[in-house]
Automatic annotation (TrEMBL):
The gene is mqnA. Pathway: Quinol/quinone metabolism; menaquinone biosynthesis. It comes from the Bacteria. This is Chorismate dehydratase. One of its GO terms (molecular function) is hydro-lyase activity. Keywords: Lyase, Menaquinone biosynthesis. It holds the Pfam family VitK2_biosynth.
């Protein structure tokens, strides 16, 4: 019998509607684990996962990667959970701290700063356990659950990067996609079946947004109304023609700044 596929999903609230009932649907076919987007990307690349919900820029950086579902994390306007917090006017940012969990938004903020102000700030990391107050930088990019709470101090400018991109380009933005690496131990029929399962979980999740919001809100310090609005109005979960155009546009702009990762092939893939 072939070993179960190893599937990795993002550990943030934004992914709850995509993984609704997923474990049950997968049964013995696959294992499901959760992690930060950047770690999922590294684990997929190193062959520690077979399929994962990874940052879109990582997909753009590896031509051998295959999209396995039209279930995605995207937005068509303000996204709420991807924010630039700047202590200085954005055109004066010299040192920028990037959330360690991010790859796509980390590139997106650099694309926007370049296109709007011709600025290429020095980049430093914002560790996952580090508060934005404690980093020595003019501005901080934060994503995921921690970016959803009001920042604890005064910032000169706060950007919602979903909103900024959508207004700048008049296109949706795709943050993450379900990707299979090449060489996995699964037939085409099994990948097609997985694709159906991921879509069914998304569809079921979208039909259960109130229930998910009710279940998750309090433990994340949010009201169920706000969390429901995040799922229903900020996030968009289907890769349609607009999202594909947005992804192609992001590819072009990030590539022109050399922000697409160049992956050397890993020496051994287990
Ligand atoms: C909207 C979000 O999308 C995410 C942003 C990602 C990135 O910046 O690399 C990757 C996966 C998504 O979880 C968010 O995390 O808030």
């Amino acid at each position: 019998m072939q070993p179960p596929l190893r599937i990795g999903a993002v550990s943030y609230l934004n992914t709850k509607p995509l993984v609704h009932g997923l474990r049950e649907r997968l049964g013995h076919r696959a294992t499901l684990s959760f992690n930060l987007p950047s770690r999922l990307a590294d684990d997929l690349h190193q062959g520690k996962l077979d399929v994962a919900l990874i940052p879109s820029i990582e997909y753009l950086g590896d031509p051998s990667y295959q999209i396995v579902s039209n279930a995605v994390i995207a937005c068509r306007g303000p996204v709420w959970s991807v924010r630039l917090l700047s202590r200085v006017p954005a055109q004066e940012i010299r040192r920028l701290a990037l959330d360690e969990g991010s790859r796509t938004s980390a590139a997106l903020v650099q694309v926007l700063l370049w296109e709007m102000y011709q600025r290429r700030p020095e980049i430093v990391p914002l560790r996952i356990d580090q508060s934005p107050e404690r980093v020595d930088a003019d501005a901080v990019l934060m994503i995921g659950d921690r970016a959803m709470h009001p920042p604890p101090r005064y910032y000169r400018e706060i950007w919602d990067l979903g909103d900024r991109w959508c207004r700048h380009c008049e296109l949706p933005f795709v943050f993450a996609l379900w990707i299979a690496r090449s060489g996995i131990d699964a037939s085409e029929a099994e990948v097609a079946e997985l694709s159906q399962i991921l879509q069914a979980s998304r569809d079921q999740g979208i039909a259960s947004l109130e229930q998910i919001a009710e279940r998750e809100a309090a433990s994340h310090g949010l009201t169920k109304e706000d969390l429901h609005r995040y799922f229903a109005e900020n996030l968009h979960y289907t890769l349609g023609p607009g999202e594909k155009n947005g992804l192609a546009e992001f590819d072009r702009r990030a590539r022109s700044l050399d922000l697409i990762p160049h992956h050397a092939p890993p020496s051994t893939k287990p």
